[in-house]
Specification:
Layout: H1 8-39, H2 47-69, H3 82-103, H4 109-142
Length: 143
């Protein structure tokens, strides 16, 4: 049976090894997707594309609290007000919708609305996570 590692040096070394393995995995998946794109295969329908997107999303969501530990706003941050976050997310979605319609006029309006809505939800999700982590951190510092 394996024992739990208690030495901090070994824990950090183990985390660095995991980080390198993750990097190699991501580069490998990216190379396979680029090869598929060059060969003319459907890249976006590939399960590897889904794995790559989920992997990058998990990495970003898991690293947000660490990034916020070192984030010291010099002025009033946009993340302090949730209505501002909602407004910015909606503005990004509307902007994407109009950009989609402008760049590809042969596409339907419904596709543009769906693309803008998805982008708006993605920004709202990430900004909401940052807002609630920062709010919790501020409450912990006040106590």
């Amino acid at each position: 049976m394996l024992k739990k590692i208690k030495d901090e040096r070994l824990m950090i070394k183990n985390l660095k090894i995991i980080r390198v393995a993750f990097l190699v995995q991501t580069i490998g998946i990216s190379i396979i997707l680029v090869k598929d794109f060059i060969d003319g295969k459907a890249v976006f329908g590939s399960p590897l594309f889904f794995v790559l997107i989920v992997t990058v999303l998990v990495l970003n969501v898991m690293s947000m609290p660490i990034s916020l530990e070192y984030f010291e706003p010099k002025k009033k941050s946009v993340l302090n007000s949730y209505p501002k976050i909602l407004f910015i997310s909606a503005l990004i979605g509307v902007g994407m919708t109009f950009l989609y319609l402008f760049l590809s006029p042969d596409r339907s309006v419904m596709e543009a609305i769906i693309a803008g809505g998805i982008l708006s939800v993605c920004f709202l999700f990430s900004f909401s996570i940052l807002y609630f982590i920062q709010k919790k951190r501020k409450q912990d510092l006040d106590e």
